[in-house]
Amino acid sequence: MDKFQEIKEYWSSFFSPYWPILTTQNELKDIEWLIQEVERLRAIEQAYEELKMTDTLKRNAKRLPGETSL
To answer: Which domain of life is it from (predicted)?
Structure first.
């Protein structure tokens, strides 16, 4: 199932009486943009988490044996 269909099914439960009105071309472009923005933000969040993990691993590798973290 594509992203648009997933979003449509989720939101249709809230907006079902209005859905035909909401699916004009401009709204479809807005929804597509929103999907891309969410995917971009998820990628940024994942990269940030990976960077934090890498930083933690580097700090842990520099510790002396027996030294504890704060």
So the answer is: Bacteria
Coil, helix or strand at residue 60: helix
Q: Which residues contact 22 (CB under 8 A, 6 or more apart)?
A: 15
Phi and psi at residue 52, in whole multiples of 5°? -60, -40
Which tokens is 69 given? Answer: 């973290």
pLDDT at 43 (0 to 100): 92
pTM of the model: 0.48
Convert the pLDDT of each residue in 13-41 to its tens digit. Answer: 666 665 565 566 677 788 888 888 888 98
CA dihedral 38, 43, 49, 51 (to 10 degrees): -150
Three-state DSSP class for residue 69: coil
The Cα–Cα gap between 16 and 67 comes to: 59
Backbone Cα Rg of the chain: 21
